[in-house]
TrEMBL record:
Its cofactor is [4Fe-4S] cluster. One of its GO terms (cellular component) is alpha DNA polymerase:primase complex. The keyword DNA-binding applies. The keyword rRNA processing does not apply. InterPro entries: DNA_primase_C, DNA_primase_lsu_euk, DNA_primase_lsu_euk/arc. Keywords: 4Fe-4S, DNA replication, DNA-binding, Iron, Iron-sulfur, Metal-binding, Primosome. GO terms for molecular function: 4 iron, 4 sulfur cluster binding; DNA binding; metal ion binding. Belongs to the eukaryotic-type primase large subunit family. Pfam families: DNA_primase_lrg (PF04104), DNA_primase_lrg_N (PF26466). GO terms for biological process: DNA replication initiation; DNA replication, synthesis of primer. This is DNA primase, large subunit, putative. Residues 319-481 form the DNA primase large subunit C-terminal domain.
Length: 497
């Protein structure tokens, strides 16, 4: 990742230097204070924020897989670390001295700044806030686990987590397991008392130190799960679960910061929301990546905003998002599409207002083998409309569903998101085929290069429909269609037949 802060005292700030730990390739901290010094250009601001959301989404997809217990033995560490390095949130090599810290300082800067940018972007709505806290905690826990794995001789003499806490300004009183001496009754009594505090644990033999922490908020999770002894409002936390204490403290700190902003009304008055260059990006960032499912609110139409057999061939080039336009043009040419493209495209047609009868008629006439279509695909479309099986209407796929749930297409497949799935040359060629010139393509390619796929789709909309409303574009293909349809064909006049 290129250097984030352009100039200012913050370039060498201790705020960032506290994120590094000898022998580790990960930067990790409690984000005790926001970055208030230095300057960052707008492109870097947007890039690091979008990349952090992409990282949190990736971590969520891997941890959710584990939570479902599809295969609890799968090790996701290599995948997550590869993604972190790709997005610029992991060091290319471990740090060992001050020279290494200076060299990798931009990575710590990007990490700290992007965390606080997302706090602002995700903090206003409860569901977005919960998603952010949950996945930031997962990222923190992952980094902490990797820190515990560091094997450095001069770090092994004391707890790496204790050293981490000290670097963040947190010091807990501790009790070390006494050594037994023959005839030393006081030592033996202390040892018995120590054992009483840990004897109920399965890992009691591994416990050689206890940290004394406040019940609330630090040790609340451990107390709730009955993993520690509580005396006089203080929890005696074994060294074997110190990482849980760190994680709980991290979560509490982030949640508390949101409450403070709520009470002070600080979100709308925060400088980034006042600055017009940033406010639009911050407001659309959660929608663009979490993709609120607009399909669940019914697409009401007076008939002039619906897709139909009569107008589809004349309106698709101007109103379909690139993913659907690509599928449709391939469908017309080959008269066949594979499973994931069928699911993506047929549900999109449904969301555009096409009736069940029209959807069946349209696909039956386009399919290369009408008899085969009747046998194998009529049921599927009827199922999508809630006329078969569970008789529950299926919503069209949102951008988030397309990016997360659908596999990356292989040869002969056309489903998915072209901004993600195409390489740079392929995407540029596709956009040229869609009629965009080099000047229009350039900002789209910049967003694609920084993994901001849904913002790239929004930019495509802005370039092809400069007077249209971008609200919700990049969150759902049907929102793209609706906004584009309204712009090109109006809300009262029917499109060309």
């Amino acid at each position: 990742m290129s250097e984030v802060l352009l100039h200012g005292d913050a370039v060498s700030s201790e705020l960032y230097r506290k994120c590094f730990f000898k022998g580790s390739r990960h930067v990790v901290c409690f984000y005790n204070a926001p970055p208030l010094e230095g300057e960052i250009n707008l492109r870097s601001f947007q890039e690091i924020a979008a990349k952090r959301v992409a990282l949190l989404q990736f971590i969520e997809s891997r941890t959710s897989f584990r939570h479902k217990r599809s295969d609890p033995k799968v090790d996701h560490v290599p995948d997550i670390e590869a993604k972190m390095e790709e997005l610029g949130f992991m060091l290319p090599s471990p740090v060992f001295d001050q020279e290494d810290v200076d060299k990798f300082l931009p990575i710590a800067q990007a990490d700290v700044i992007s965390h606080f940018v997302l706090r602002l972007a995700f903090g206003k709505a409860r569901d977005r806030r919960d998603w952010f806290v949950r996945n930031e905690q997962r990222l923190f826990d992952f980094r902490l686990d990797r820190l515990r794995e560091v094997k450095i001789r001069d770090v092994e003499t004391h707890s790496k987590l204790e050293y981490f806490l000290q670097s963040q300004g947190i010091v807990y009183e501790s009790v070390v397991m006494p050594t037994v001496f023959s005839g030393a009754n006081s030592k033996n009594e202390q040892l018995q008392e120590f054992h009483q505090l840990v004897s109920f644990r399965n890992d009691a033999a591994k416990v050689d130190k206890l940290y004394i922490a406040p019940f609330y908020p630090d040790a609340m999770q451990l107390v709730r799960s009955r993993q520690v002894v509580l005396k006089n409002g203080l929890a005696y936390v074994p060294n074997t679960v110190l990482h849980v204490l760190c994680s709980s403290r991290f979560r509490h700190q982030v949640v508390t910061s949101f409450r403070s902003l709520d009470e002070s009304g600080g979100f709308d008055s925060a400088p980034p929301f006042v600055d017009e260059r940033l406010s639009g990006f911050l407001r659309v960032l959660p929608e663009s990546y979490l993709a609120v499912d607009h399909s669940r609110s019914s697409f009401k139409s007076d008939g002039s905003e619906s897709l139909s057999l009569a107008n589809i061939n004349s309106v698709f080039a101007l109103t379909f998002p690139p993913c659907m336009r690509r599928i449709f043009t391939h469908y017309i040419r080959s008269r066949h599409i594979k499973y994931n493209a069928r699911r993506q495209f047929w549900l999109f047609l449904k969301g555009c207002g096409m009736s069940l009868e029209e959807n069946l008629h349209f696909n039956r006439n386009l399919w290369d083998d009408p008899t085969n279509f009747e046998k194998e695909h009529v049921y599927t479309i009827r199922y999508m409309y809630g006329k078969e099986g569970r008789r529950v209407s299926c919503p069209p796929l949102s951008c988030a569903s397309i990016l997360r749930a659908l596999p990356v297409p292989t040869a002969g497949q056309v489903h998915g998101c072209p901004f993600r799935d195409f390489d740079s040359d392929g995407l540029r060629g596709l956009l040229e085929d869609f009629g965009l010139n080099a000047e229009q393509i350039s900002p789209i390619m910049e967003l694609k290069s920084t993994h901001q796929y849904q913002l790239a789709c929004m930019e495509y909309f802005s370039q092809t429909a400069p007077n249209g409303s971008t609200e919700g574009v990049g969150t759902h293909p049907n929102v793209f269609f609706r906004n584009s349809f309204k712009l090109h064909y109006g809300s009262t006049d029917s499109p060309a037949q």
